[in-house]
Design a protein that fits this description.
There is one protein chain. The protein is an alpha+beta fold. It contains twelve helices and 23 strands. The N terminus and C terminus are likely disordered. InterPro entries: NA-bd_OB-fold (IPR012340). This is Replication factor A C-terminal domain-containing protein.
Length: about 500
Amino acid sequence: MTMKRNGKSPVSSDSDEKVVFFNDVSLGPRESQLRFRLIHFWEARNPVKKTVIGLEMLLIDEQGTVIQGFIPPGRIKKFLPDMKRGSVYKLINFYGSKNKPMYRVSDHVATISFTWNSELIRLHDIPIHFDEDRYRFHSYEDFKANCDLRGDLYDVLGHMKLVNGQTLTERPTLDELEIATTRHVLVHVQSHDGPVMKLYLWDQAATEFCQKFKTFENTPTVILVTTVNPKRTLALTSMSSTRVFMDNDVQPTIEYFTWLGCNPDTANQVSADVVTKRETLSIADIFSYIKQDSAKDAFFECTATIDDVVHGSAWYYIACSGCHSTKGPTSMVCTNTKCEKVNTTGVAQYRAKISVYDNSEQAVFVLLGDAGRSLTGKHASELLSSYFEANGDKGAEDEVPVPESLISIIGQTHRFCVKVTDHNFSGNTRAITVTKVLSQDIPPHTEASVGNNNAASPKVMMLTRDEVSEPSKSRGDCANEESKRGYDTADPEKAKRPRCEN
C-alpha cells in the first residue's frame, strides 16, 4: 500500500504483495514490501552539536540477513510510537541508500531509508520464523588490526576479568553515583584463552551494564557487547548502538557460559597484574594521546633521559603520615576526612620537577614520593634532616636548596611509570606525574637504544577515577645562590623547612 505525498488517502497497488528479501535490496527507490524483525534502534547524533540527525535501526529478515535502517529526523515522530524492539514489521516503499563507510553495524551494501511514502505496519501472530538476532564477533587480532579505522563496529564475547579494577573473586561493588559522574564502566574481557582487552562502556551502555549486573543473584561472568569501536590504544569503546548481554541472556552467552564451565582453568589463567600491565610509549605519543578528545586518566611507561632539575619550584612537600595528603610547607593539620590516623605527623615527600627527553620530544616530569627515593636512594625526610643537622642555624622559615642527591641524577636514563589526568587534558599543566621508577640499570640514552620507543605499540591501560590521583601543584620559590656547608648543591632551588604538629 502506498500513500499520497500529503500523507492522506491510502492507495492500493499490485506491488504491495511483492516481498523483497534483504539480499535483493539494491540502491535507489523501491515500491516493494519488506518483512523483518526490528532488532534494535537508537538515536544518531551530531558529535559536535549533539543534535539528532536521525534514528538508526538494525533489521533482520526471514532469511537471517541483517541490514541497517534509517529514519530521517523529520519522520521520527511518525514512526517511533509504533516501534518496539523484537517485533515483526512490514515496510512498504523505501529507498535503498548506500551503506555508510564509517561505524557500520551490518555487512550489507545498502541501508533501508524511510521515505515520504513509507508505511510501517506491525505484524502479529505471523507464522514465518525470524531469528532474534545476528552477531558479528571479532577476535583480539581483528580488533588490533582495525584500531581507529572507524569502519565496521563488531561484537565482542568473553568472560570478565575485572570490573572497574575489581576482580570477580568477590562480587564487585558498582558505585552508581561514581559511574554517573565518570559516565563509564571499565571491564577487562578475555575471549576464550586469548589476550585480555579493555572494554569501556559509556553512558547508556554503562547504565545498562549496572542494571543487568545487579539483577544476577550470582556474580555474572560472561559478557557480550555489540558494536564496539576499537581505539588506537586497543581499548574497545561502546557506541550509541551498543547493547549489553550477560550469562544466560542470549544464545551466544549461554553457549560461552557452558564452555567456561567446562574449562574452569581459563577464568584464572590471567592475573590482574597481567591485565593492568602498563605499555610503553614515547613522550611524543603521550602528548599526542593527551590531545585526543577521548583521552581519559591513564598510566604509561616511558623511557627518558634526565636533562636537568627544573628551577623555581620546591623539591618536596609536607604530607600527612597517615594518608600522604599535601599539607603545605609548615603546618600539619590533616583535613582529609578519609584519613584514619588519629595522631598525624608531618612527613617530607618528594615533589621535584625534572626536565627529560627521549628520541621524540622533551617534557617535564614530576617526581612524587617513592619515585624520588628510587632515583636518589634516600627518603626526602632523610635529606632534610641531613641539611638541618649541617645547618643548625637555619629555622623553619628558611629555604632548603635542592640536594646534591637530586642534582646527581642528571644524565641518567630510566624507565618511568607516569600518569596523565584531567589537569593535563584541560591544559592546566604539561607536567607529567611520575609514580614509579621501574629500572635504574638502563644504558645511557643513544639513538640505537631508544629508537624503538617511537615504534612501540601505543597501548595504554586506562584506569578508573579512584585509581588515579590528581598531580600535585608545585610551589614557586625564590632562587638563592648561597651554598650551605655539609650540603653541597649546584642548583639555586630552595624549599622551606617543615614544622610538624600533632
